[in-house]
Amino acid sequence: MTPNKTLFTAIGIALLGACAQKQKFEKIDVNYPEVRKSDQIDTYWGEEVADPYRWMEDDYADETKAWVTAQNEVTFGYLEQIPFREDIRKRLEEVWNYEKLSAPRIQGDYQYYYRNDGLQNQSVMYRRPVDGGDEEVFLDPNKLSEDGTTSLAGSAFTEDGKLFAYAVSVAGSDWRDIYVMDAESKELLEDKIEDAKFTGIAWKGDEGFFYSTYDKPDGSKLSALTNNHKLYFHKLGTPQSEDKLVFGDDDNPRRYVGASVSEDGKILAITAANSTSGNELYIQELEKANAPIVKVVDNMESNNYPVDHQDGKIFILTNKNAPNNRLVIASLDDPNPENWKDVIPEEESVVSISKGGGKFFASYLKDAITEVRQLDYEGNLERIIDLPGIGTAGGFGAKREEAELYYSFTSYITPGTIYKYDIESGESELYNKPDIQFDPEKYESNQVFYTSKDGTKIPMIITHKKGLKKDGKNPTILYGYGGFNVSLSPAFSIANTVWLENGGVYAVPNLRGGGEYGENWHLDGTKLKKQNVFDDFIAAGEYLINEGYTSSDYLALRGGSNGGLLVGAVMTQRPDLAKVAFPAVGVLDMLRYHQFTAGAGWAYDYGTADDSEEMYKYLKGYSPLHNLKPASYPATLVTTADHDDRVVPAHSFKFAQTLQDAQQGDAPVLIRIETNAGHGAGKPTSMQIQEIADIYAFGLYNMGIGFK
After folding, report:
1. Domain boundaries, position 698
2. Residue 641 and residue 617: Cα distance in Å, rounded?
3. Of 112, 205, 487, 590, whose CB count within 10 A is highest?
């Protein structure tokens, strides 16, 4: 495609609402800006590969900034001409405007919880005395910046609740600053940690806390490679420059290092990994002077995470010799895996573990649906918890001495509801049900199983209004992820209600690469098997079409991050499958992803072009950026953000520009670049609402469907 090619979106006529009023969809002209191509050529295993937009990887360059400005002008100029765009935004704002309350947690003499009155950009942390009294604001993140783009990104109290440390993210960045507060007076201490990243906060009594960060990278903090993660201890009252290095080795770097301290304060557990799956495990006894750091697991072939410590024994959740996970017990005297004993053995369903009130809570995924069991510390089953329905339950955490805990329950048509649970009796009582403009009785959410290309059965949950006509004309969003052992279990989205009430269908398949069926399911969607994920997603779209839920003219593909890769790969392999594509913050350049920020840590799932000629050819064979060729592609709205330092925006920049070059059809190719935002976490409410309004407006307009 030549620069400045005028693009026409010709859409036609659609019926709006029961009144059958006809609305004309006007043609929208799109004039793409002129863009420079460089003569950059890379050689991989003897093969030359052009990368003409390599210069876009320099996020600080004036040329890149000018390109961003020009593309946003085109994109927002287009979006502003969609007549019902503002109607969608207003409706989203209406349904979003309800009180949101988190489950409370007891810390010291107070009960703490988050609340958002409806449209606040960030939820506010409140507290009230345990023995009764008025609530008060404890920490309001909305006061940390004028535009709401500064957010809380992790926090921790000391065990006695007297000190509070919290991490702050600016504009969605993964780099955080940590502050310390006297919880009683709410006064900030002088302690401040700058530039922590991928960190937790683990207190050692009231002496100080452990945190993780990288050495400052050369070049841009938003895109430069970060490879050597280290664990430090900050002693209160001392400057950061004096913080003690606890774990980290320049000669043997680990990309991800984390720490936790057991509830009794006796054990420091350290996890170390080079990828998103598999980790070493170390422990240190904190009450013993100069106690060594003891290696428990000396390789990264399995996932191993501490759950609790009791009487010289540590409980570990592991998938070592157990793809669906098991809980084991190990002695501090000899924690070698050869001596581990099962407490909760592996079963057919994948399990995760939490604890509270001296009990374990085992949460099993059965076809992506939650079942929760309560067990004692010997692994004896006490009960299967009676949940409010079929969906996703989470929370189930409390301190050892507490008699109650809180959990949440949700599904695609059940707003997140909080229950108080009596650990002794097993009785649940409603704690908070949101007052929301949505009637679940008007909708249905059903699980189906369809067959992928190689014969594998894949579950998918399809949600829509009751009485839906399967005439192939329903606007449908097919949402997927399929990677990194992440499970997509049913969860309510306030944004989805606006799509559903407009007659839309929302479908979510549980693709291989995810964690719904354990590590084997995950591995079946990694490296040289990654095509399985794309095949699963394509088959999901074909199922929806064959069953009459929708047709290619009314289907939209949506996914973010690894899901953005999914959408990018599928729309290049099957440009005829869908009318619209929404690749968000996607990993789209599979030959260079590992050269930015923490991207090298994703190699467990993807492999890299440096691994072997076979791996290079496989990656190039599906890399969305490298498989664009002159063709008719779906109407595409790429979304990213200028402060995304997880999946750097250059992925989206290069893909969008190359797609504009390759587009031979009439459908628009736009990129929406949010400023002062990152990968997604901490994004203020106002930004979320406007972005979703733009996505829905773009999708419906290009399907020729109005908004009622």
Report:
1. 65-94+438-703
2. 30
3. 590
| Cβ atoms of 254 and 273 closer than 8 Å | yes
Q: In the predicted model, is pLDDT for residue 640 greater than 90?
A: yes
Question: Within a domain: residue 331?
Answer: no
Q: At a CB cut-off of 8 Å and minimum separation 6, what does 451 contact?
A: 457, 458, 539
pLDDT for position 678: 53
Residues 6+ apart with CB under 8 A from 47: none
Q: How many domains does the chain have?
A: 1
Tell me the sheet residues that pair with 110.
Answer: 107, 129
Contacts of 148 (CB under 8 A, 6+ apart): 120, 121, 122, 142, 684, 685, 686, 687
325 and 317 Cβ atoms separated by less than 8 Å: yes
pLDDT of the residue at 225: 64
Query: 488 lies in a domain?
Result: yes
DSSP per-residue string spanning 597-642: TTGGGGHHHH--TTT-HHHHHHHHHH-GGGG--SB-PPEEEEEEET
Residues in the chain: 708
Active site amino acids:
561, 679
- Tokens 């360059």 locate to 61
Q: Are 358 and 348 in contact (CB under 8 A)?
A: no
Distance CA(616)–CA(482), nearest Å, equals 21
Instruction: Please answer whether residues 329 and 339 qualify as being in contact, where contact means their C-beta atoms are separated by less than 8 angstroms.
Output: no
CB of 522 within 8 A of CB of 485?
A: yes
Contact 478, 541 (CB under 8 A): yes
- If pLDDT is split at 50, 70 and 90, which confidence band does 401 have? very high
Residue 551: inside a domain, yes or no? yes
Determine the 3-state secondary structure of 86 from DSSP: helix
SS3 26: coil
Beta strand segments in 215-312, E = 229-235, 244-247, 256-261, 267-273, 280-285, 294-297, 304-310
pLDDT given for residue 669 in this prediction: 98
> Domain of 447: which CATH number?
3.40.50.1820
pLDDT digits (tens, 9 = 90+) for 201-246: 999 999 999 999 988 776 665 555 677 899 999 999 999 999 999 9
Write down the pLDDT at residue 4.
37
For the chain, the straight-line distance linking the first and the last C-alpha, in angstroms and rounded, comes to: 36
Strands lying side by side in the sheet with 256-261: 256-261, 267-273, 280-285, 294-297
For residues 449-476, one letter each, b for 16 or more C-beta atoms within 10 angstroms of the residue's C-beta and e for the rest, the string is ebebeeeeebbbbbbbbeebeeebbbbb
> Any idea what the Cα angle at residue 79 is, between residues 589 and 624, rounded to 5°?
15
Residues with Cβ within 8 Å of residue 208, at least 6 apart in sequence: 233, 234, 235, 236
Q: Residue 588 to residues 3, 44, 84, 170, 253: CA-CA distances in angstroms?
A: 22, 18, 31, 25, 27
Parallel, antiparallel, or unpaired: how do β-strands 350-356 and 341-344 relate?
A: unpaired
Using left for φ > 0, alpha for ψ between -120 and 50, and beta otherwise, residue 184 falls in alpha
Q: What is the pLDDT of residues 182-195, one digit of tens each?
A: 999 999 999 999 99
* Contact present, 579 and 552 (Cβ < 8 Å): yes
pLDDT at residue 601, as a whole number? 85
Q: What is the pTM of this model?
A: 0.91
Alpha carbon distance 190, 195 (integer Å)? 16
> In this structure, are strands 12-16 and 202-204 parallel, antiparallel, or unpaired?
unpaired
CA distance 361 to 373: 6
User: Residue 674 — pLDDT band, cuts 50, 70, 90?
Assistant: confident
